[in-house]
Amino acid sequence: MADEKIKRGPGRPTDKRKDTVLRLRIDAETHKKLNRCAEKRQVSMSEIVREAINEIVQEAEAESYDAKVPGGKKTQDNR
User: Fold this and answer.
1) Structure letter (DSSP) for residue 7
2) pLDDT tens-digit profile of 9-36?
3) Sign of the C-alpha dihedral, residues 70, 72, 78, 79?
4) Alpha-carbon dihedral of residues 64, 67, 73, 78, nearest 10 degrees?
5) ∠ CA(31), CA(33), CA(36), 5° rounding?
6) Residues 6+ apart with CB under 8 A from 66
7) Residues 6+ apart with CB under 8 A from 77
8) 40 class by beta-carbon count within 10 Å (0-12 exposed, 13-18 middle, 19+ buried)
9) What share of the chain is helix, strand, coil (3-state, %, to 5)?
10) What is the pTM of this model?
């Protein structure tokens, strides 16, 4: 697309364009935790949320895979 070739302002280089906005409501304490984590890791709060989402999806996919594979990962319920 022509839009992707437009030179943009300064910022972190990225391999994926982030053009979708997600609005969510969180309480003040969760916001403080998210902000502290982002500052500590020197990334944006958006990046922390993206990483968390990716981790949750990977865990869900692994659980789904383990449930489908005979002899898959054992849990306390199916020892």
Assistant:
1) P
2) 666 667 788 889 999 999 999 999 999 9
3) positive
4) 140
5) 105
6) 72, 73
7) none
8) exposed
9) 55, 0, 45
10) 0.63
